Amino acid sequence: ESLKRHRYLNSLFPHENSTAFYGINQFSYLFPEEFKAIYLRSKPSRSPRYPSKVQTSVGSVSLPPRFDWRDKHVVTQVRNQQACGGCWAFSVVGAVESAWAIRGEPLEDLSAQQVIDCSYNNFGCNGGSPLSALTWLKKTRVKLVKDSEYPFKAQNGLCHYFSSSHPGFSIQDYAAYDFSAQEDEMARVLLLSGPLVVIVDAVSWQDYLGGVIQHHCSSGEANHAVLVTGFDQTGSTPYWIVRNSWGSSWGVDGYAYVKMRSNVCGIADSVSAVFV
């Protein structure tokens, strides 16, 4: 079944430059339905259209040919959500880690398990919405603790509370946008704000090995939360650099490349920036 699917995915657009290629990886033993049920557990949320009042200040920023927050050493290593549908928590935690590091704080692995256990308007390893998690963080001013203090268990647990004097990393605010048809604006917000939380249609990512994803994504149903750390426009196909939470053996060292300016996989439909 898997090999048949790979042949189909690889045969449709063989002559395009740097098109994604698909093959055997750690998810090949799963039927697509199983893969979806375990790994694609993020709920999409409607985001407001990109507000024009911000556009005036952002619009003046010119885009470099290539930019990646990893080059500034403000992005943590790729994590592995294992069989826990907690992508929504990992993407949000990744954005918080980077936002604080951009401000000059040490880059720390923060606790995704804390968000999974304590974000009361989500469903832990059974799925959730990054926007709900961000709303919870903003409203409660919860301080995220280090991953070493509240390690990932890959299953739901009871929320462990820390005293208000316990050191940690909270957020002041977040902004949510719909950037469809405005991906250059999205790139400018990434330059100014840091890595962005996005929700994509990742059904075909089960088989992704590398290259730039340009097809096989309907963007009809967003189901997986990831973190956009940068973009690259130096080649024939400009693309977003996307950090996933399926371990570093998946994709390109744990990352995917998604074509820019075509809203491939719905990457621009639900975008959030974090402010600390």
From TrEMBL:
GO terms for molecular function: cysteine-type peptidase activity. GO terms for cellular component: lysosome. One of its GO terms (biological process) is proteolysis. InterPro entries: Papain-like_cys_pep_sf, Pept_cys_AS, Pept_his_AS, Peptidase_C1A, Peptidase_C1A_C, Peptidase_C1A_papain-like. Residues 63-275 form the Peptidase C1A papain C-terminal domain. Keywords: Disulfide bond, Glycoprotein, Hydrolase, Lysosome, Protease, Signal, Thiol protease, Zymogen. Its EC number is 3.4.22.42. It is found in: Lysosome. Belongs to the peptidase C1 family. Proteolytic enzyme possibly involved in normal cellular protein degradation and turnover. This is Cathepsin O. The gene is CTSO.
